Amino acid sequence: MNFQQYQDQVKASCGPLNHRERVALCLMCCNRLAPLYLQFSTTENWGNPETLRQLRELAGKWLAGDASIPVVLRSDLDAAIPDTEDFESGLVSYALNASTAHAYLLDLFLDDNLELVLSVLQACYDSVDFFVQDRLDPEQRGGVQEQQIEYHAAMRTEVGWQFATIQAVQGNSDLINLIRRLEHEPMFETA
């Protein structure tokens, strides 16, 4: 599946999801991205993985019916988003995707907006894109073709996970247990 097909199909698949299902989907994505942020934070001695963890915990509570959202969390979350210009490590791209996905999740609590969901899914897609590029072109010479990325096993696995998870949340009355079941499913290992 090429990128345009992916975008069209993911938009069509997420459109029918209700607000709770969208939050659950994004929370599961953030759970998968969080280890990448933690690895960046540990390597660069920068960032705040605890803020991201608190947001995921808050999302679980929101899904359970607690609609309170601490205002201070927004400023803490904004402070945890790295500027890619400040770091030489390739891990910063993963951390940027992870932290912005968490910011979109926070925004989604207040605004049931399909574009926020698509942005979180895109952060996952982009992280795998970076991963594949790094594996195919470790010297970063720029010789990787889009088709090589789109049809790489890691990308096919990610796209498959996204569509399977969208299906799993749709109409699911037990989202909390679904999230718990998939909570420790890694996206990939960067090391």
Describe the model:
The protein has 191 residues and is an all-alpha fold. It has one domain (3-182): Up-down Bundle (YP_001051499.1 fold like), CATH 1.20.1590.10. It contains nine helices and no strands. Helix 2 packs antiparallel against helix 5. The longest helix has 26 residues, at 19-44.
Structure characteristics:
9 helices, 191 residues, mainly alpha, YP_001051499.1 fold like
Radius of gyration: 16 Å
Shape: globular
What is the helix fraction of residues, given as a range?
over 70%
How is the CATH topology named?
YP_001051499.1 fold like
**What is the CATH class designation?**
Mainly Alpha
Low-confidence stretches: none
Number of helices: 9
- What percent of residues are in strands? under 5%
CATH arch. level architecture = Up-down Bundle
Largest sheet: none
Topology:
Layout: H1 3-14, H2 19-44, H3 49-63, H4 72-79, H5 91-110, H6 114-136, H7 146-150, H8 153-169, H9 175-182
Helix pairs in contact: 1-8, 2-3, 2-5, 2-6, 2-9, 3-5, 5-6, 6-8
Question: What is the compact description of this entry?
Answer:
The chain has 191 residues and is mostly helical. It has a single domain, classed as YP_001051499.1 fold like (Up-down Bundle), CATH 1.20.1590.10. Helix content is 70%, strand content 0%.
